[in-house]
Amino acid sequence: MTTLDSGVDSLADVTSSEDRLRRFLLGLPGVDQVGAEARAATLSTRSIKTTAKQYALDLAIRMIDLTTLEGQDTPGKVRALCAKAKRPDPADPSTPQVAAVCVYPDLVATAKRELDGSGINVASVATAFPSGRSSLAIKVQDTKDAVAAGADEVDMVIDRGAFLSGRYGLVFDEIAAIREAAGDAHLKVILETGELVTYDNVRRASWLAMLAGADFIKTSTGKVSPAATLPVTLVMLEAVRDYHEATGLHIGVKPAGGIRTAKDAIKYLVTVNETAGPDWLDPELFRFGASSLLNDLLMQRTKLATGHYPGPDYFTLD
Amino acid sequence: MSRFEYAPAPESRAIVDIKSSYGLFVNGQFVDATDGKPFKTVSPASEEVLAEVSEAGPADVDKAVRAARKAFDKVWGPMSGKDRAKYLFRIARLIQERARELAVLESLDNGKPIRESRDVDIPLVAAHFFYYAGWADKLEYAGVGDDPRPWGVAGQVIPWNFPMLMLAWKIAPALAAGNTVVLKPAETTPLTALAFAEICQQADLPPGVVNIVTGAGRTGQALVEHPDVDKVAFTGSTEVGRAIAKSVAGTHKAVTLELGGKAANIVFEDAPIDQTIEGIVNGIFFNQGHVCCAGSRLLVQESVYDEVLARLKRRMGTLRVGDPLDKNTDIGAINSSAQLAKIRELSQIGEDEGAERWSPECELPAEGYWFPPTVFTGVSQAHRIAREEIFGPVLSVLTFRTPAEAVEKANNTPFGLSAGIWTEKGSRILWMANQLRAGVVWANTFNRFDPTSPFGGYKESGYGREGGRHGLEAYLAH
Fold first, then answer.
1. Do A269 and B275 touch (CB under 8 A)?
2. Residues A4-32: pLDDT tens digits?
3. Contact B245, B257 (CB under 8 A)
4. Quick check: B91 and B129 in contact, CB under 8 A?
5. What are the tens digits of pLDDT across the range A265-279?
6. What is the pLDDT of residues B233-257, one digit of tens each?
7. What tens digit of pLDDT does each residue of B275-300 get?
8. In the 8-state DSSP scheme, what is residue B44?
């Protein structure tokens, strides 16, 4: 099997029956764990300084999906987050805006109102987030509600139970159904890689999601540990690169959960640059799902501009 | 800036204090050479002269061997293994303390990227001293007999590709086993060995236990042929190895030789593809291909040839060639103008014989010795580039159809130092490893080293093993 040779037609073929889909996914080249982790470790020793660092910090800010996904979320909290999304650093108007604000479906309308006219998207985790354990009808309705409330992007979770028991067709159909329910909204498919465990599973799930119509593949909900890791993101970036070779389509990647420092974010950007390529260094194709990352980026940005670190109180909580 | 272009991130040279000239290290002191002309060592990345180094003539070598003999008889030989271990642990810790300095010095003198000297070479150097320090008081448990004894004085000659690491491979087991040493580093890369001499002083190592004589082939020859040397260890070219084997034949000297290679890196159709590409890159472009066990012959199963080649070329396009002290450099400078000339000559022969040559677009610095990462396709076993060791960033790609054919082609070489197998099939890995005539067989990885793992060759790749318990055996009479 060669991923490079497969054209669009043959890929349409592989989804024509569960059996073919299964054979295709199981036929993908394996991922050697030691090798993948060694490669990620090498990429994280790149040294990014001066102009490159400036560029990386601003790019990382533009790639953030500023997120609050707590049971205790309120309209007040979401309004505060939206204000921050629009003006991340009140002291420095040159600071770019983030890409999107990510909330639960019932808070989409609030976020939409707050962000009106800002150009910042509203993303919503629909589909019985984070476990995904409800009927397809409910997941579809959840998605439709979010989109009706104004969500520009839908982050769905896959059925990990179905995936791990090899029912790839079920997972495929579910993603395709949500794809349809989401309409024009961008669909991000959360693989919850911490529950898939092996890199082989991560690669298969990535392909499955792309074949079923994902615009983005996303590592995690943030509710399961481990969440995003560099090697997992590396494997997903390899998958979108190969999918692009096969189809000409660009699929985005979103690591989410656990990325807290500018230093970590830069490691991800280096990995994007050297794996999928510079085309993916764009908020259209790469996002960080994060809440606490932003302040560290702002702090490093101020350090570059002024030569010293301001204290944490110089940046807003949210 | 619309693209993510990494700004230069050079490591500071300020951490290293390079003297304008160096003497020889004999009997615990730096001394002037008596009968050789001093020579210069340059940075291959800039051709800048780094220092002037003494050439040891036969009289100087004789002094060093005598100092080693005396230290063996009076101090190091009679000392308990436990006490020898203390010195070795102390040296290991000093290497760790001075790691950054040694890494910068190594990259300056050798041309290898700081990423490798910092992350691979120097940590492995410290690891070797720690590992063999642990053996010093347990020699009778090394599995080489009840009462293993040191040979005496070891004369050691090392190459320029891993100057400090090869020093560690030679000196650490020799001292642990109770031998004293006279070591000659390569003429193009003597500086870290001289820094190591300072570390021996810092560690209060008894005078004469380690002696360093700098110079070229003549110095090495004087050392190897010295009648009072008991054990000869050499890493370098097959040609010199042959001369050494002749010169020690019929003497009492024990000898180990670690020579050239032309390793087969074998890729099956079910290989973990992305890691395989990394392994191919690491196999041949690590240390500019200046690696005796480099995976310089890529054997790809025909069914995945196109895909492997396409992916390999794309990956080669991301390799960053340039300033070895820049932390983002993947491929540094070729070690010397002579080596560059040899790589150019063999590559030209490859083209003349009809193989297809490809390199990614990359700008090479104007000063210094550089060669772009290069791949030759359409290569057959009959091509010279498939048979001779190029010792540079030049990969020859061949194909095969069945596992048996892969084994046949892999073994069809005068060398036998290493080999690599890439497949998800465990049973095939084990079957192949048994068939391949190579001292090291890596599975789903390449160019990995560890002090506990023996290393050495078959056929023209030499004899004897370094590293692990086997490496101790080479320094023990039993």
1. no
2. 444 556 788 999 999 999 999 999 999 99
3. yes
4. yes
5. 999 999 999 999 999
6. 999 999 999 999 999 999 999 999 9
7. 999 999 999 999 999 999 999 999 99
8. T
Question: Which of A50, A269, A278 shows the shortest C-beta gap to B7?
Answer: A50
Q: What is the mean pLDDT of residues A99-105?
A: 97
Dihedral angle over CA of B186, B191, B197, B198, nearest 10: 180
Distance CA A310, CA A292 (A): 16
Instruction: Tell me how far apart the alpha carbons of residues B478 and B458 are, in angstroms, rounded to a whole number.
Output: 23
- Strand B49-53 relative to strand B39-42: parallel, antiparallel, unpaired? antiparallel
* Mutation site, A6, A44, A45, A47, interface B, largest B CB count within 10 A: A47
User: What gap in Å lies between CA A139 and CA B200, rounded to an integer?
Assistant: 70
Q: What is the pTM of this model?
A: 0.95
pLDDT category of residue A317 using cuts at 50, 70 and 90: confident
Please, how many CA atoms are within 13 Å of residue B321, restricted to the half-sphere of its CB? 22
| pLDDT of residue B184 exceeding 80 | yes
In whole angstroms, how large is the CA radius of gyration of chain A? 19
A·B CB contacts under 8 A: 81
What distances in angstroms separate CA B319 from CA A43, A144, B440, one per listed residue? 12, 47, 27
Query: Measured on CA atoms in the order B10, B11, B15, B16, is the torsion positive or negative?
Result: negative
Binned at pLDDT 50, 70 and 90, residue B200 comes out as: very high
A65 by DSSP, 3-state: which?
strand
Q: Is B258 tagged catalytic?
A: yes
From the list A230, A237, A231, the residue with the least C-alpha distance to A252 is A237
- Structure tokens belonging to residue B79: 């000392």
Which residue type does A71 have? G
Q: Over 80: is that where the pLDDT of B74 sits?
A: yes
In whole angstroms, what is the distance from residue B315 CA to residue B319 CA? 7
Does residue B33 come out as left (phi exceeding 0), alpha (psi in the -120 to 50 range) or beta? beta
Nearest to B278 among A35, A50, A52 (CB): A35
CB atoms under 10 Å from CB of B123, counted, come to: 16
The secondary structure of A5-56 as a DSSP string is T--HHHHHHHTSSHHHHHHHHHTSPP--HHHHHHHHHHHTT----HHHHHHH
The predicted pLDDT at position A8 comes to: 52
Residues of A in contact with B273 (CB under 8 A): 29
User: What is the torsional sign of CA B442, B93, B72, B61?
Assistant: positive
Q: What percent of chain B has pLDDT over 90?
A: 98
CA distance A263 to A46: 11
Length in residues, chain B: 478
A190-227 pLDDT, tens digit each: 999 999 999 999 999 999 999 999 999 999 999 999 99
pLDDT given for residue A9 in this prediction: 61
Q: ∠B398-B399-B405 over CA atoms, to 5°?
A: 115
Please state, in angstroms and rounded to a whole number, the distance separating the CA atoms of residues B468 and B464.
12
Tokens of residue B158, six digits? 């090392």
Phi and psi angles of residue B397, each rounded to the nearest 5 degrees, phi first:
-110, 125
